[in-house]
UniProtKB/TrEMBL annotation:
Biased composition (Low complexity): 40-52
Keyword Glycosyltransferase: yes
UniProt-recorded name of the protein: Uncharacterized protein
Molecular-function annotations in GO: UDP-glucosyltransferase activity
Pfam family, one: UDPGT
Biological source species: Papaver somniferum
Similarity comment: family membership: Belongs to the UDP-glycosyltransferase family.
Length: 287
């Protein structure tokens, strides 16, 4: 079995999977991301990218805003000062919760990029302002320039790779988790369904890179809770610890996909590259 994970950061999960698979091999070959986005081990580049990365033709999705526009806005913000909010392409939340989230964002005073989707019961995204955002919210964001609202799918990789991005409010889907951790960005969790609550629990309790804001769409949510969690992750000592933990994980993820020559002149390969090699050797030996 091939899985989009990394040996060094998913020890417990991979052990459980291997026990379940019994004698069948499990190869963690993640992260499934372009290699130039990763922090490349002992001798690699540790700098973040502040430019467009992924052509729209490769994503299969229609951008709600161009990557260039997002990058231009982010370039005007301070390092690690922006919160990115996206609850995934398959998820929506109720209108009351979306309004509380918006009010909490505004109360926090933080700069943010928010990938908006119509709330449940609404299909026309052009009518979202009056129906499921607080009155005057969009106008205030346009004036203060603190909120960058994307009314469709946002270029997530570009945003997470930018040095101005300091945290990610996410549904904790595994692809989003991998992208965020590969860039050393801590997470505010709002898991909604499927395996997402388990991911959020692991991120918070085992990795120390997440604070959970809510769970599912049934959780009671108020704007003060949103404000409190944002400040905890972006302003407090705990937030600094989360960011440090996320940076360590990013380095482990990058090292897993790195090949280099060590000081003794020996060629070294990261764990995910070794898994790929082992997988290829296994399938070719059975021909």
């Amino acid at each position: 079995m091939l899985c989009n994970s990394v040996e060094e950061i998913d020890v417990v999960g991979l052990e459980a999977l291997r026990n379940h698979m019994e004698s069948k091999p499990v190869w963690p070959i993640g992260p499934l991301l372009p290699s130039f986005l990763l922090r490349q081990g002992p001798q690699g580049n540790q700098n973040k990218n502040n430019g467009p990365l992924v052509p729209q033709s490769r994503t299969g999705k229609e951008f709600g805003i161009s990557p260039e526009s997002c990058i231009e806005w982010l370039n005007h913000q301070k390092p690690s000062s922006v919160l990115f909010i996206s609850l995934g392409s398959q998820n929506t939340i109720s209108a009351p919760k979306m309004k509380e989230l918006a009010l909490g964002l505004e109360k926090s005073g933080k700069y943010f990029i928010w990938a908006l989707k119509p709330s449940r019961g609404f299909e026309n995204i052009s009518e979202f302002e009056s129906e499921w955002l607080p009155e005057g919210f969009v106008e205030r964001m346009n004036i203060t320039k603190k909120g960058f609202l994307v009314k469709n799918w946002a270029p997530q990789l570009e945003i997470l790779c930018h040095s101005s991005t300091g945290a990610f409010l996410s549904h904790c889907g595994w692809n989003s988790v991998s992208e965020s951790l590969s860039q050393g960005v801590p997470i505010i969790g709002w898991p909604l369904f499927a395996e997402q609550p388990y991911n959020s629990k692991m991120l918070q309790e085992e990795m120390g890179v997440c604070v959970e804001l809510a769970r599912g769409d049934e959780t009671e949510l108020c704007s003060e809770d949103v404000k409190k969690v944002i400040e905890q992750v972006m302003d407090s000592r705990k937030g600094d610890e989360m960011r440090n933990n996320a940076t360590v994980i990013a380095e482990k993820i990058g090292a897993a996909m790195t090949e280099y020559t060590d000081e003794a002149g020996a060629h070294q390969k990261g764990s995910s590259i070794r898994s790929i090699d082992d997988f290829l050797a296994t399938i070719t030996s059975k021909k």
